[in-house]
Write a structure and sequence with these properties.
Layout: H1 8-47, H2 49-59, E1 65-67, H3 72-85, E2 95-104, E3 110-119, H4 130-133, E4 136-138, E5 143-146, E6 153-158, H5 169-172, E7 175-180, H6 186-204
Antiparallel strand pairs: 1-2, 2-3, 3-7, 4-5, 5-6, 6-7
Helix pairs in contact: 1-2, 2-6, 3-6
């Protein structure tokens, strides 16, 4: 059987397609790096750029990848809207990832540092109940921190009254922030969490200007 040669324009078309695919693949990787770099900057806005750098460096591993979909101001708008629409019977609250950093671990997998925020199902009054009083420490009139539970995470509650919300919202719907990590030193974890809380409290313009201490656990 006689072999047929492909027309030159067909062969050149294959080459062009291959070059386009390579170019697109390269652009995709570049876009991913750019997106991660931008997200890392946003993480710095939430958690403090120096705090983030130290936390990532302490975990080690390969090049980190960050995801942060909303800047502090934009996330505050979303939280503010939820607080305005809240009623006492509302127990379903959305949780938002403000920043997630994936750091490749040796041997595969990844170590994750993540900061999340939600309006809490707990209340300021519930902090006085025995089952919660054992786990939470009151730092001042508006701020409570969860004591170490043996898990690599830390939670903070802040009474944050939002303009336009009902009068019960400040005490009945405190702001809850959480930082989880692969096992940072307590000092690093609380630095991330404290900065995270102060950033959101400032963006939300909470009534009474609650003060979040830099040092949460002594």
């Amino acid at each position: 059987m006689t072999k047929r040669a492909f027309p030159a324009f067909v062969a050149s078309g294959f080459v062009l397609c291959a070059l386009v695919l390579v170019g697109c693949s390269g652009d995709s990787e570049a876009e991913k790096k750019t997106s991660s770099s931008t997200s890392l900057q946003v993480c710095g806005q939430f958690l403090g750029a120096e705090n983030v750098r130290r936390a990532v460096d302490s975990v080690g591993g390969g090049e980190s990848s960050a995801t942060a979909r909303q800047a502090p101001g934009r996330l505050a708008v979303v939280l503010n809207r939820e607080a305005e629409q809240w009623s006492v019977d509302d127990l379903l609250h959305n949780s938002y990832s403000a920043c997630r950093i994936d750091i490749p671990a040796e041997g595969g997998g990844a170590s994750v540092i993540e900061a999340r925020v939600a309006w809490s199902v707990l209340t300021v009054d519930s902090m006085g109940e025995p089952k919660y009083a054992k786990r939470w420490r009151q730092l001042n009139e508006e701020v409570f921190v969860e004591l170490e539970t043996g898990q690599p995470s830390m939670r903070l509650l802040v009474a944050c009254g939002v303009p336009g919300a009902t009068s019960e919202q400040e005490a009945g719907l405190p702001l809850q922030m959480t930082v989880s990590d692969p096992g940072l030193a307590v000092e690093q974890r609380q630095a991330l969490l404290s900065t995270f809380a102060r950033t959101l409290v400032g963006e939300l313009a909470c009534a009474g200007d609650p003060v979040v201490p830099e040092q949460l656990i002594r």
